Structures are given as structure tokens and as C-alpha cells.
Amino acid sequence: MFEVIRTGIQEICSRKLQSFLTMLGVVFGVAAVISMVSIGEGAKNDAEEQLRRLGSNTVMIKRIEPDIGNIEKNLKKSPYGLNYGDMTSISEIFSSVSYFSPYFEAEDNVKVQDRTIKASIIGSNEQLPIIANLTLEQGRFISAMDIEDFSEVCVLGANVKRKLFAYENPIGKTLTIKTRQFKCIGFLSSLKSSTLVKMTPHNDSVYIPISSAVQNFNLASLSANVSKALNNEINRNSKRVLKGLLKARYPIDSAPLSMILLKVGDEKELSGFGDLVRSILLRKHSGQEDFSVIEPAELLRQKRRAQRIFNIVMGSIAAISLLVGGIGIMNIMLASVTQRTREIGIRRCLGAKKSNILAQFLTESLIITLIGGMLGCLLGIALAWFISYYAGWQTVISYSAVFSAIFVSMSTGIIFGIYPAWKAASVDPIKALKYE
Fold first, then answer.
1. In angstroms, rounded to a whole number, what is the distance separating the alpha carbons of residues 187 and 185?
2. What is the DSSP letter of 75?
3. pTM over 0.85
């Protein structure tokens, strides 16, 4: 067997370019498998990590702004869409809700002395760190007393802190947000942004009490179209309650929210929870569906289904590539049999059996696919690293995928090498000696 392998390697080395072109199909097929599995595993790990961070028992209710064509009509039914009162109602109706947090988002300039940056201003309450798993680097988060007193205090995301204060400690310093002075009471550790649920990255946000947010920003969280339509509605109906919503301090229950975050005590209680919340809010909003209920656990299931489809598609492409590579190997090996007919005749006359010739050609086919598989693994790992480095996607090299890819490539060599090897072994020695 050692002699057969040595001879096979010599034959392949004597036709370097031909052998290399033969194994290219296998190389790219294996590389596609490795890189595809690496991306898939990375996406799965990333999604599961985000679900662990958000919690499988978390529910999010996001505001949806009405269609541009029917803005004014829809605003009469549900003036601000999702509001603080919706959150209060849900928390009172469902005893299973352990934590709830309003989420009011607007974008504005944040200024410290001569440094000004654009940041997301998030109005929330003291329960947000529990729901969203926020980690304080230093200081404290917003308290219930801050909300009750309309305190102008803030907590900075990691990027905001770095851009405005670099290596200084911002706690106790004053920031200007929309002409108002806010005192920094803490800052967060750097957190990875979520791709499972679309939210403003925590690192680029400034957190303030929900009461101060709705008092100082009013319509800032609404789009220009909705804001304009709402103002038109107020101008036409000056006595309506809507006008009171624009005053400096209006009832917090009417405050518009970008999102409501809920954490249910037990994941088992989530069954049907989203549908019940949807029906309650539809009644409150006069049938206007200006919100969407998002369950991260369900999103993860959807993402896994999409990932399976992606894996099937990519696996099919890789299989086609391996099939093309296998056909290429068979073609070259058949050509090799023709070219080496005289050599086969001499071997047979010197005592080589059919099994020896069969083993010789099958070994050559196996060596080509084995080398192609190994090169494909290296290329696949390099592609995964390249994607991770330049695209910022998480990739995970699966050793089972590497060994499986090499095994499949070797199987390709055996399957597509059997016929040429059998044809070589079946050559008539006398005719082979006469072959020119």
C-alpha cells in the first residue's frame, strides 16, 4: 500500500497543473461548506446570546406610525399611538408581568463645553437595566424618585461617555440636551448591539427619566409627517385634549412611547400572551393597529427557520460544486487511463493483478480529492476569518464540519474514481502493449 501511495503521489506531481485544475472543484466545494457552516454557527450563537441577554421571557411592543395617506384620520382614533397609559393598563391586567419599562426615544445634540455629538435620548424607568440587562460601569441608574421629581439627570452609554469625556470621570458633570442641563449620575459598560431585535445601540444612548423625556421632548420622537399632522389637528380643535398634551407638563399616561418592554415571570406564561396584549391594545386604540408585539423567543425560532433554509441553499451549492469537481476528476482519470495504456500493459505483463491496477488509479483519485479537501478546508477557514474581520459577522469554525467536508471530498474521489480505475484494470495487456 505504501508503494501504491508513493507511486500515486509521483504520478500527480508529474502532472502538477493538470492535477491542480482537477481538484479545484473539490477545493471550492469544501471551502463553501466550511465557510457556510461557520457563518451559520456564528449567526446561531449570536442570536442565542442575544436571546439570553434579552431574556426568553421578554416581550416588546413597538410603535408603528400611521400611513402617510391617512395620518390625520388615524390620529383622531389614536393620537399618539403607543403611550404610557398602555403600559400601565397591561401591567395592571396581567399579574404575570414582573417588570415593565417605557421606552421613549428621540435624537438630539448632546453638548459638553465645546464638544457636541448627536445621540439617542432614551426616556425610561428604573426597571430597564433588569429587562435589557444593562450593566453599570460606575454610578447609578435612574430611580423612581428621579421620575417622580422630573429630575434632570442622565446615564451615558459607553460610546457617548468616550466621545464627550474621553478618560475623564463624567459623574457629577453637566451636559446640555435641548437647552436643558442634565447632571450625569452614571455610565454603562460597553454592550454588544442586538441584531435579533432592532433597537438603538445602548452604547450610543443617553438615558434620562421618562418624565423628563416627555416633558422636554414632546413630539421630538415622532416623525415630521406625524408631528405636522398632529399640530394641524390641534390647531383645528383647540379645545380638544390634544392641545393639553403639548404643555410643559402633561399627564404622563398620555405620553407617546417608542416602545414598551415587559418581562414575564415564567416563560411558560408567554403562551398566548402576545395575542392577548394585541387584542387589549386594539380596543384601547379604537381598532387602530399602530403597534407591533415582538417576542424575542419567537424571533429566534423564525431566525433558525431562515437559517435552515440558508444552510440548505448553501449546502446545495456546495454539493453541486463537489459534483462538478467529481465529474472533473472522472474526466481527467479517464484521460489518464488512455494516456497510460502502454504503462498499464507493461505492469500487467510484469505480474500486476487487476486489483493492483484498480488500487493504483483509485489511490490517485483519492489523493487528489484528499489534497483538494485539505486545501478547501484552509480556504474555507480563511474565508470565515475574512468575513468575520471585514464584515463584522461572528463566525464559528465547526471541527465536525471540517472533518465531514474532508470525508465527503474523499468519498467523492472514491465514487468518481471507481469507473476510471475499473476501466484501467480491465485493459487487455496484449492490446495495451501495442498501444501507441
1. 7
2. H
3. no
C-alpha cell at 1: 500500500
Q: Cα(293)–Cα(62) distance, rounded to whole angstroms?
A: 7
**Residues 6+ away with beta carbon under 8 Å from 45:** 394, 396
Collapsed DSSP state (helix, strand, coil) of residue 138: strand
Nearest to 424 by CA among 362, 331, 367, 349: 362
Q: Which three cell numbers stand for residue 402?
A: 471540517
- CA–CA separation, 415 and 417 (whole Å): 6
Element (H, E) at 100: strand 97-112
- Cell numbers at 123, concatenated: 426616556
Q: What's the start-to-end Cα distance of the chain, in Å? A: 29
Whether 341 and 397 have beta carbons less than 8 Å apart is answered as no
Amino acid 155 reads V
Instruction: Judge whether 37 and 399 are in contact, CB under 8 Å.
Output: no
* Alpha helices in 291-353, H assignment, sequence order: 296-339, 341-349
Q: What is the DSSP string of 154-171?
A: EEE-HHHHHHHHTTS--T
d(CA 132, CA 206): 15
Question: Distance between CA atoms of 317 and 9, rounded to whole angstroms?
Answer: 30
Rg (CA), the chain: 33
Q: DSSP label at 248?
A: S
Who's near 321: CB < 8 A, 6+ residues apart? 25, 28, 29, 32
Q: What does the alpha-carbon distance between residue 130 and residue 55 come to, in Å, rounded to a whole number?
A: 10
Taking the CB of residue 333, how many other CB atoms lie within 10 A of it? 24
Per-block mean pLDDT, blocks of 10 residues, the chain (436 long): 72 76 81 81 72 70 67 52 81 82 87 88 89 87 90 91 89 89 91 58 87 71 49 48 42 74 74 79 77 74 74 75 79 78 80 80 83 88 85 77 81 83 80 69
Give rounded-to-5 percent helix, strand, coil for the chain.
Answer: 60, 15, 25
CB 308 within 8 A of CB 398: no
Q: What stretches of 183-295 show up as alpha helix (H) in DSSP? A: 210-217, 224-236, 241-245, 273-284
